[in-house]
Amino acid sequence: MKKTNVICPFCGCLCDDLTVNIEDNKITGVDNGCALASSKFLNTERLEKPLIKRGGKLVETSYDEAIESSVEILSNAKRPLLFGWSGTQGEAQCKGVHICELLGGVIDNTSSVCHGPSILAIQEVGHPGCTLGQVKNRADLIIYWGCNPVDAHPRHMSRYTTYADGFFLDNAFRERKMIVVDVRKTESANVADEFVRIKPGGDYAVISALRAMIRGKSKSIPDSVAGVSKSQLERVVKMCKEAKFGAIFFGLGMTMSPNKYKNVRNAIELVDEMSRHTKFTITPMRGHWNVYGSNEVFTWMTGYPYGIDFSRGIAFYNPGETTAVDMLSRKECDALLVVASDPGAHFPKKCLEHMADIPVIQIDPHLNCTSHFADIQIPVAITGVETDGTAYRMDGIPLRTKKVIETERPTDTEVLEKMYKKILEAKGKCTHCW
């Protein structure tokens, strides 16, 4: 059996044209998907049964006992942290916010370690963005800055930019130009019309130089800026001015290098400068599948996109204070709930040392590095494969994912709903008021 037009649940592209081959309720192959998509659909390293740590060893338990014990840990914690949420559907993210408010804890998503600085910049100067469909059909100049789509978003170029047909372009492949800006020559740079290699940490200086040149202040620019020659910067400015529709996509090479959110703010203001001559837009290359959705859901419900602290009885937001890495490295939280994420693989050593000292509850379909820190593991269905749900593409478009096979495992939303009701009971709250 084949299921068509399936949405990929891996990266922020949310490619919606996959065909999944199924035999006896097992996925045997994926057509149209990249290597990352195939890996996601065919991954067999699952958390099989609920496990709980007793006497230093993980032993099998029931879902009810795992949920009951999780509720006890979270309810008794003075400063619980609920982290992750980028790999699950919007419905589960809603439950997570409700639980955190009830506990008076802190809820954070993976934005705080990827595109959090982009959000800070957008809060200050706005977001001149557009849909990926507009880029595909109209853009004749693409700039990838501090990102490598060939490896991280393998179908981005073929679906939306370099190799995609465009409705308003006669011969998109030949008309469309591509510039790559990075500190090293990547696979994406190999297919670019212009590769701009900058020195590490030189993003802000190069963006500022481009802004000055666009404003006609070329004489004030030195012969070299952060390793980039003045003549190459002039060439880039010429390409930008001659474009009818330009689109900048930027990644962690910009957001997590020195100057962080100031780089993004400067890049948005560069788009503003270029839009005085032609049409230009800018879009962050969101990596985690539904991390954009977690920002949306958290903002609807609390007013803030990530790092939200309910300990004061109201939503409080201060990145650097209420974000997961900062809290863990300060040894501030005394219990950690991880949903659809893997901080064990990506967080600094100081954070992992504290994770080893506090109770960690993991809700996830897969075995990963965080599993080794977990005192309780609760296996769930894979969103977009074994259960449907709502997710947001990197350009802010919500899509409804499909269930392609059946499973006996509960969904994230079902597990969190049970936890929410039990926390209400434990705290003696009225179910009608909450």
Automatic annotation (TrEMBL):
Keywords: Oxidoreductase. GO terms for biological process: methanogenesis; respiratory electron transport chain. Signal peptide: none annotated. One of its GO terms (cellular component) is membrane. GO terms for molecular function: formylmethanofuran dehydrogenase activity; NADH dehydrogenase activity. Transmembrane segments: none annotated. It holds the Pfam family Molybdopterin. InterPro entries: Formylmethanofuran_DH_bsu, Mopterin_OxRdtase, Prok_molybdopt-oxidoreductase. Residues 46-407 form the Molybdopterin oxidoreductase domain. Gene3D superfamilies: 3.40.50.740, Dimethylsulfoxide Reductase, domain 2. PANTHER family: FORMATE DEHYDROGENASE H, RESPIRATORY NITRATE REDUCTASE. This is Formylmethanofuran dehydrogenase subunit B. It comes from Methanochimaera problematica.
